[in-house]
Write a structure and sequence with these properties.
The chain has 156 residues and is α+β, with helices and mostly antiparallel strands. The chain has 2 domains: 34 residues, no CATH class; 101 residues, 2-Layer Sandwich (Alpha-Beta Plaits), CATH 3.30.70.100. It has a 4-stranded antiparallel β-sheet with strand order 3-4-2-5. The longest helix is centred in the first third of the chain and has 19 residues. The two termini are 32 Å apart.
Length: 156
């Protein structure tokens, strides 16, 4: 089990930040041949990104909901996301091509979506939690003094 950081914490990051959400909706759970390869491709891409500090990838966290997985990714810049997505030498391009081939064979079995946000300012608080989210992707610092209120953290 992850170590709990006791007390109140926030993230510590200055400069550009992009949040990239990517999700998958399993429309036909009885067709794992259509959706499981896409699900299994993501950890490979995350490992590839984590090994390359120059990629601009800062970190991620995965959640599972009723429709399928949602991956929250933190990046330095939007251009870094696009560069990785278009890199013919990286794991994303072949995974995307394979997904499209499967989607043509089994239409409607799985849906994918993404949203990209360029973040001008961000506020966070984590109480008695393992370091997670934006604090894990950047760095964490204790909340106190001038960072005690959410509005103050957002203004800092």
């Amino acid at each position: 089990m992850a170590r709990i950081a006791r007390g109140r914490w926030t993230h510590d990051h200055a400069g550009d930040l992009t949040v990239f959400l990517i999700g998958m909706r399993i429309n036909k759970p009885w067709r794992p041949d259509a959706w499981l390869p896409a699900f299994l491709a993501m950890p490979r891409m995350l490992r590839e990104l984590a090994r390359d500090p120059s990629s601009g990838f800062l970190g991620s966290r995965m959640t599972l909901g009723p429709g399928g997985p949602l991956l929250v990714q933190y990046w330095r810049r939007t251009e870094d996301v696009y560069r990785y997505a278009g890199d013919r030498e990286a794991a994303h391009r072949p995974a995307w091509a394979a997904f499209n081939r499967r989607a043509r064979r089994v239409p409607g079995a799985v849906g994918v979506w993404h949203e990209t946000y360029e973040v001008a300012r961000a506020e966070s608080v984590y109480v008695d939690m393992p370091t997670t989210g934006l604090a894990a992707a950047t760095s964490a610092r204790p909340v106190g003094g001038r960072l005690d209120r959410a509005a103050d953290r957002l203004a800092a």
